[in-house]
Hints:
Layout: H1 6-30, E1 48-55, H2 78-83, H3 88-91, E2 93-102, H4 109-123, E3 130-134, H5 140-150, E4 157-160, H6 173-184, E5 195-198, E6 201-204, E7 208-210, E8 219-221, E9 227-230, E10 233-236, E11 261-265, H7 273-280, E12 285-290, H8 301-309, E13 313-318, H9 334-337, E14 340-341, H10 347-357, H11 364-373
Parallel strand pairs: 1-2, 1-3, 3-4, 4-5, 11-12, 12-13, 13-14
Antiparallel strand pairs: 5-6, 6-9, 7-8, 9-10
Helix pairs in contact: 5-10
Keywords: Hydrolase, Signal
Binding site for substrate: 104, 137-138
Protein name: Glutamin-(Asparagin-)ase
Amino acid sequence: MKTLPASTARRSLLAAPLLFLTLSLNLSLLQPAPALARDTAPAARLANVVILATGGTIAGAGAGTANSATYQAAKVPVEQLVAGVPELKDIASVRGEQVFQIASESFTDEHLLQLGRRVAELARQDDVDGIVITHGTDTLEETAFFLNLVIPSDKPIVVVGSMRPGTAMSADGTLNLYDAVAVAASPDARGKGVLVTMNDEIHSGRDVMKAVNIRPDAFRSAWGPLGMVVEGKPYWFRLPAKRHTSGSEFDIARISALAPVEIAYGYGNVTPTAYQAFAAGGARAIVHAGTGNGSVSNRVAPALQALRGQGVHIIRSSRVTAGGFVLRNAEQPDDKNDWVVAHDLNPQKARILAAVALTRSNDSKELQRVFWEY
Ligand code: DAS
């Protein structure tokens, strides 16, 4: 038998224990991890989350599984929504309330106030840790922003919808609802304002908008989402910068009615007719959904100056959808006209903020301050 040179023999002797150690390590990797010592501390209780259902596609039903866009919204009751996601019981102690059963394009300011009062009442309860609102997607961004302004609570409040009814293939409502409850149950969602979970993303109720009307990735925030939910766990990457909820000067308890505020769209060939009709109908402010930088046609500017003279506020917003930013006195003499600019808020959000702000002051400088701060 050929003997090994001494150096080779030493290396192989050294190698033997290493080989044994490696093998035993590999084998141990194949064994199931030993059960951790049972934690004797009582298991932390699941968070109590209330789901307020208002209707929309997330409660919709279509004739067949191929009907992802042809369906009836606001059909499925909240009990069935909750039963449709049995995994909810693993992440929270959930109960549901049916506040409305409507498509959200039919929301009125009265619906906003009624929903807001119920949210505020629940948020004051010690046995409620978080609130989820299921909602149509059409005006979801308006409701989320409204609640962000008037609910004096740091508890997680999450608005959620779906782009496809539960009867369709690849329906998005179940996972959206699961994500919403996961966020509402999460202590680190506290103090971040009203949130919106759609398509695994977590958005600020202030920034989010419905940018697409027929795909699950419909909701966008011009400044980006705050985070995302992965397998029932929220991950955060940024925080809201504007005043909201417990940091807001507005409180639903002190609002009996929202101020009447309308929106008129700017476009080529525009005339003052809509603005004048809104003023005649009692609008206290008109949001101008202007072209580009909230620009105002020279066919309309004189009429808006006259309306301001009659006490109607003019608020310049922009009709652009991927991130407007209207600057004071840029292309329009706002100081001279005593007009307000909507900052980065789109027209529908500007309407909500003006309708809330005018419940406290009719002063245009106060109104402009509010648009900078919220
Ligand atoms: N009609 C729409 C609404 O209720 C359906 C939806 O997308 O939720 O907002």
